[in-house]
Amino acid sequence: MNEIVSCAVVGVTGRMGQHVCRLLSHADDFKIAGATEAPGSKHIGRSLTETIGLPGEQALIVERLEDLPESVDVIIDFTFPEVTMQTVEFACASGVRTVIGTTGFSDDQMNSIEKSSRNFACVCAPNMSMGVNTLFKLVRDVALILREGYDAEVLEIHHRHKKDAPSGTAVRIGQILADAWGRDYQRTAVFERNGIIGERTRDEIGMQSLRAGDVVGEHTVLFGGTGERLELIHRAQSRDCFAQGALQAARWLKSRPAGLYDMQDVLGLR
Predict the structure, then answer these.
(1) What is the per-residue DSSP string for 204-259?
(2) Cα–Cα 20 to 30 A to 180, which of 2, 94, 145, 253?
């Protein structure tokens, strides 16, 4: 019989928070020990059954992780950078393993997460899906082959509610391309083209973002050469692929020492 992992979910009424809770509720090796919501939320003090309709889930929603009525084995956080940094502070002080799917961190925030993770085991990834993490590996493999005479463009499409652009996944793809080609992502990424801009430079990596409707997430990586182009495409049709990855990461963390990991580590794609 599998060991039961006690889990807390940060931002439980968010899109990803609800998906994570539903999968946790149906998993035999997890239990939801509690969840958090923003200060002043009307859901504080209510159960998950009352709030998001999960049958039999009486764990309460609290304002802060410090307010959880029992200890937990792992925290899952898909929220916003400012909220997640509070989660990191708690994990650093308590040593609780943590899975972070939040995107849009600044360089300073990422440096803080890396430093803090010396005190707790943390999986932090811009995308938790197995398919996207396979895409990351494929992008690197292709870029190492198509080194000369090829241009790279990254196009991402998300729902109208997404707050950061480009997506964390697209940024990671851009960084992989830059690393494979020996370039500086911050210097070579081009985020907008408008007007008379002249010819495309050899080194630039195009990063384009679209926002429309309820698109869960779509990423296209285009390698354009003379007389041909190669496209790698990933389309997320449900947020469940991200939530499943988070549970997979939480299971994987059980036997890991303190440190910062990502989904490439979880899936053995290094």
Answers:
(1) -EEEEEEE-TT--EEEEEEEEETTEEEEEEEEES-THHHHHHHHHHHHHHTT--SE
(2) 253
Residue 158 among the catalytic residues: yes
Q: What percent helix, strand, coil does the chain show, rounded to 5?
A: 35, 25, 40
Domain that holds residue 28: 5-124+239-266
The residue whose two tokens read 């940094």 is: 85
Catalytic position from the list 19, 115, 137, 162: 162
Residue among 146, 220, 211, 140 nearest 175 (CA): 140
Phi, psi of 117 (to 5 degrees): -70, -5
Out of 158, 163, 234, 254, which one is annotated catalytic?
158
The pLDDT-based confidence of 255 (bands split at 50, 70, 90) is confident
For residues 49 and 149, state if they share a domain. no
Q: What is the mean pLDDT of residues 29-48?
A: 95
pTM of the complete model? 0.87
